[in-house]
Structure formats: structure tokens, C-alpha cells
Amino acid sequence: MRVSLFITCLADTLYPSVGRAVVEVLERLRVTVDFPAEQTCCGQMHFNTGYGPEAGRLARRFVETFATSELVVSPSASCVAMVRGHYPRLAALSGDQGLIDAVAELTPRVFELTELLVDRLGRTDVGAYFPHRVTYHPTCHGLRMLGLGERPLALLRAVRGIDLVELPGAAECCGFGGTFAVKNADTSVAMLTDKVRAILDSGAEVCTATDSSCLMQIGGALARQRAGVRAMHLAEILASSEHHAAGGSPSVGTGALP
């Protein structure tokens, strides 16, 4: 199998270790990964803020960039939800039948990481080792738009050494919502406060999720409180191994904690 990596803006600019982790996990499973350098933003921020034509141009670029890809994988449930959930509408609004057809042909081949691992590769055990107490936050796009369900949890349960604990009120939003956190800061902070309290109540060392955006929101609050809890993308946990834990080369900016 050959897969093209859609890295997303946040991973590209702020969390490159997440992209490296995705590659390490897939290559461990003998999947060939390529990286189309022409890729840019999926347009989610523009779309959610009301800039439809700008989002449409980014959708067109995405489709052109990945048109020849066998499959596309991304470590972001929200970006995949944008592509699969909103590109058809943007294409229809453009009135360009060529774009409409191209979107319809490409979007079924775009997968969030856990979908690709569980549904296409049939794997839950990816050879990971992570001896820490972890809780999982199901992000809104992953939970409600993609319907990821048990896929992330099945992958986590198969990680050797992990102590997976339930997150109270897991389905509640962390308050990020992209520009929502900027436009409605007080509401966002109130929601984040509830989420952080639930994470601390779980007793976890690590809070994981399938979106770097939500983890940025949660991790910022945990860091400001010096809570001693780390926010960590699911891909980084899956890329961790006994070699990393034993002090081997941290090729993915490893998930092994001190």
C-alpha cells in the first residue's frame, strides 16, 4: 500500500513530531508513505470564518495535489472532516463540474489515521509500547463528523504497558473550535476549565487525542497550571516503542516521559 501524508497546518508549523510519528507507524507496518510538497491548508479556518471563496480555492488545490494518490492519511480528524464533509458543498457552489467530479472521486480515499489503521489495514496492535497512564479525549470532529467511535480506543488498548483510564465527560468539547476560541474567549475558557478538571480527576499522566488543535488548547492550560500532565497526539503514542523508552534514538520526538 502507498499512502500520501496530508500533514495539516498545525503539524507543519508547530507539531512536526506528529507527522514524523505517523510516518514511523505506517512504515513499521510496511506502508510506503509519500509527501506531496505542493500541499497547503485544507481551508477549514477560512470556511468556518465565512470565507467561502477562499476555502474553495484551497479545496481545489488539495484535490489537484492529491489527485493521483492511492490513499491520503492525515493526523487530524477536523481536517479530514473538512475534506470529506464540506468539500462537496464547496465544489457544488463553484459550479465547476470538473471540480465536483474530482472531489467526489478523491474524498472517499481520504482517511484520518485511526480509520486507515483499523479499517484499511485491519490493525489495532501496531507494536507500540508506552508504560504510562493515559486518558483519551474524543475531539468533536472525530466524534460527531467522522464517527471514529472505538477505533482510537482499540488502538490504545493494544499498546503494551499502557494504563488507559476513562475521561469523565469525555464527549464534552474542550472549547477550542478554531476561531471560536478567539471570538468567544470567555466561553472557550469555561469549557476548557471543565475539560482540564476532568483530565486531572482521571489521574492520567498523558491526555491524548486525534487533533493537535484540541491538544494545543488542552496542553496550554495544563502547562499554565503546571499540572504535570502532558498533552500528546495519539500518533506519538503509537510510534513509541521499547527502543525509545530505553533511551534509543528519539526519531519521532518520542512519547516516552521522564
Main traits of this protein?
single chain; 258 residues; alpha/beta; 4-stranded parallel sheet; 14 helices; 8 strands; 51% helix; globular
What does this 3D model show about the protein?
The protein is an alpha/beta fold and 258 residues long. It is built from 14 helices and 8 strands. The strands form 2 sheets. It has a 4-stranded parallel β-sheet, with helices on both faces. It has a 4-stranded parallel β-sheet with strand order 6-5-7-8, sandwiched between helices. The longest helix has 18 residues. The radius of gyration is 18 Å and the shape is globular. The protein starts with a strand and ends in a 13-residue tail after the last helix.
List the helices and strands and how they pair.
Blueprint: E1 2-5, H1 9-13, H2 16-28, E2 32-34, H3 44-48, H4 52-65, E3 72-74, H5 77-94, H6 97-106, E4 110-112, H7 113-120, E5 133-136, H8 140-145, H9 151-157, E6 163-165, H10 180-183, H11 185-202, E7 206-209, H12 212-224, E8 230-233, H13 234-239, H14 242-245
Parallel strand pairs: 1-2, 1-3, 3-4, 5-6, 5-7, 7-8
Helix pairs in contact: 4-5, 5-6, 11-12
Summed up, what is this model?
Helix content is 51%, strand content 11%.
What strand line-up does the widest sheet have? 2-1-3-4
Number of strands: 8
Gap between N and C termini? 36 Å
| Helix-residue proportion | 40-55%
* Major sheet attributes: 4 strands, parallel
Instruction: Report the uncertain regions.
Output: 248-258
What proportion strand?
Answer: 5-15%
Radius of gyration of CA atoms, rounded to a whole number:
18 Å
Overall geometric form: globular
Helix- and strand-based class? alpha/beta
Question: How many helices does DSSP assign?
Answer: 14
Mean pLDDT: 92
H/E element order = EHHEHHEHHEHEHHEHHEHEHH
